[in-house]
Specification:
Largest sheet of chain A: 5 strands, antiparallel
Order of helices and strands of chain A: EEEEEH
Oligomer: heterodimer
Order of helices and strands of chain B: EEEEEHE
Number of helices of chain A: 1
CATH superfamily of one domain in chain B: predicted glycosyltransferase like domains
Number of helices of chain B: 1
Radius of gyration of chain A: 15 Å
CATH topology of one domain in chain B: Thrombin, subunit H
Distance between the termini of chain B: 42 Å
Strand content of chain A: over 45%
Structural class of chain B: mainly beta
Strand order of the largest sheet of chain A: 1-2-5-4-3
CATH architecture of one domain in chain B: Beta Barrel
Strand content of chain B: 35-45%
Strand order of the largest sheet of chain B: 3-4-5-2-1-6
Largest interface: A-B, 52 and 44 residues
Helix content of chain A: under 10%
CATH class of one domain in chain B: Mainly Beta
Structural class of chain A: mainly beta
Number of strands of chain A: 5
Shape of chain B: globular
Distance between the termini of chain A: 53 Å
Helix content of chain B: under 10%
Chain lengths: ~100, ~140
């Protein structure tokens, strides 16, 4: 077969949400991420899963409950991107919130 | 996004999922896994979904990363062995189904095709695992 098959891997990582603000989301992740990595942040609410495109702004190691975790600051890029990827319902989030 | 912004989760910790999309090229594929190349490393044990488009058809399979090694002399290129997880039925969009069809066309019906290779869950070597060549297609 030629050319080689091309495609994409979609990997999943469960994280704990610490805080959600206007344009940034803080989470605790078991593994670090590279700055500027693009991701989809998915969260379930009342049985509906919504997604939003984010970019890693910061990744810092922290110790939580005697375990090494990585605090990630995710910058919200564009809700439409998440909807385009078919991983979200395209809903816009509420405006306002703390920083 | 339909998440409650501006609030701290109370009581039970709120959880979410981060989905990363990594472009890949498939080097070798079998019914139980495949060998792929990517510019991003993946940790062994990571799980996700592999999505491939072949001749206009889209195939999907859930996987777990068995190993990931850097290719020397190829810059930041990584070779990743993944094992398919049998979490989906073998429908027309299943990559396992596509491989079965492909192997059947090339070599005739594979011996024991109805017996999934590595179904005992002990196969952790990805596409490099020992199994019949009838069950495997090399992408060149």
């Amino acid at each position: 077969m030629s050319p080689p098959w091309a495609g994409a891997l979609h990997t999943l990582e469960d994280v704990v949400v610490e805080r959600i603000a206007d344009s940034d989301i803080w989470v605790l992740s078991p593994s670090p991420l590279n700055r500027d990595d693009g991701l989809i942040f998915e969260m379930s609410n009342n049985g509906l899963t919504s997604g939003v495109a984010v970019r890693v702004a910061e990744s810092r190691p922290v110790v939580v409950d005697d375990r090494l975790r990585h605090r990630l600051r995710l910058h919200v890029v564009n809700d439409a991107t998440a909807a385009d990827n078919g991983r979200g319902n395209g809903q816009k989030g509420p405006t306002g919130g703390e920083r | 996004m339909a998440v409650n912004r501006g609030s701290k989760p109370k009581g039970v910790a709120a959880t979410a999922t981060l989905v990363a999309q990594v472009p890949v090229v498939v080097v070798d594929v079998s019914r139980c896994g495949c060998l792929i190349e990517s510019t991003r490393p993946l940790e062994a044990g990571a799980v996700g979904t592999l999505q491939l488009t072949v001749d206009g058809h889209e195939y999907v399979e859930d996987f777990r990363v068995a190993r990931c090694t850097a290719l020397s002399g190829r810059g930041s290129t990584f070779r990743i062995g993944v094992e398919f997880l049998r979490t989906r039925r073998e429908t027309d969009v299943s990559l396992r189904h596509a491989v079965t069809q492909l192997v059947s066309i090339r070599t005739g019906p594979p011996v024991g095709a109805s017996e999934p290779v590595g179904a005992d869950g002990n196969n952790s070597k990805g596409a490099d695992s020992e199994h019949s060549t009838n069950d495997r297609a090399v992408i060149s």
